[in-house]
Amino acid sequence: MRSCSGWRRFLLCFSLLLIIFHIFSGSKALNKSHFLTPSNASNVGDSISFVTVFTIYSTSLDSHADDKSSNLVTVGNVSYTKKERSMAILNVFINFIEVTMPQSNVIILADPESDLSLQRNKVTLYPIQGEYNRDKLMLQRIRSYIAFLNTRLKELAQNPGHTSHYIFTDSDIAVVDDLEHIFQKFPNFHLALTFRNNREQPLNSGFIAVRGTPESILRAKIFLQDVLEVYTLKYTNASRMLGDHLALAWVIKSQPNFDLRRFSKAQAFIEEIDGASVLFLPCATYNWTPPEGAGQFRGMPLDVKVVHFKGSRKRLMLESWNFFSSASDISDMLCLILMSGRTRYDF
Length: 347
What we know:
CATH class: Alpha Beta
Strand order of the largest sheet: 5-4-1-6-9-8-11-10
Number of strands: 12
Number of domains: 1
Distance between the termini: 47 Å
Number of helices: 10
CATH architecture: Alpha-Beta Complex
Largest sheet: 8 strands, mixed
CATH topology: Spore Coat Polysaccharide Biosynthesis Protein SpsA, Chain A
Helix content: 40-55%
């Protein structure tokens, strides 16, 4: 019995040491990150615009459900209906960009019929006709990206001049470090995708960067048209979600000389895909998602630059912004994400 009791004490102490190690390692990594302010942000180089597709579902059924107090979700001192929390997520998405990359613009591709009532500096609503219902939203997102790039190509043909790069993202991400270096460090890519070590879904469409030159925009448009074609032919049964990831993977895997083993290492690389120079960036840095049950101390990547609060983690996105607003410290905010004891999220 004594040896068994001693073994339990050893396991307890060892577990505590692991927790301390992870907290220390996480904090050490997080302290490397910082928010830029207008005074230290670079004024050199081309501009960057963040582009996202956003819609609000306001059917009578949803409106009736929102009237019920049981459907309210409280974060901090604020209670949200479904519509209100969707708008809160969008505003927090913009807030993080304003702090980390204050020179950047935000472009919201939206259903012309929707009334977002959004008045923010450096934010533009860009109406695009399409099918924005829940079951077709992921398909519509790719169509909206293509339509936007096509319009931008026409504008550049008429008025060539200042280059603006584009980063297409989901609206449930937090940009926690400047991303301008992507376009400076890798000067020759046309578009960039994020990857992870996942056999079925190695690519995530929540982050796509496009260089703002006419050739790059054209190559990105053609690439996305290929993805859309695969999506509609092979994955319409997954049109509500995941189909875009599967279609992206199919386009890349269909390349005869592409080495899928490159996805096993979290290192950036460039490949030619049907005439486009595609930069592959690791999700661990540019599209990192907190694991469900983050309180298990699985750790956080060094120098994480984009946090993706996908799925039900959106509450944590609001909590993170509230925490940052009160502390004004990126390391504190990211530690909140790292040490969240929640085993499941409820958004």
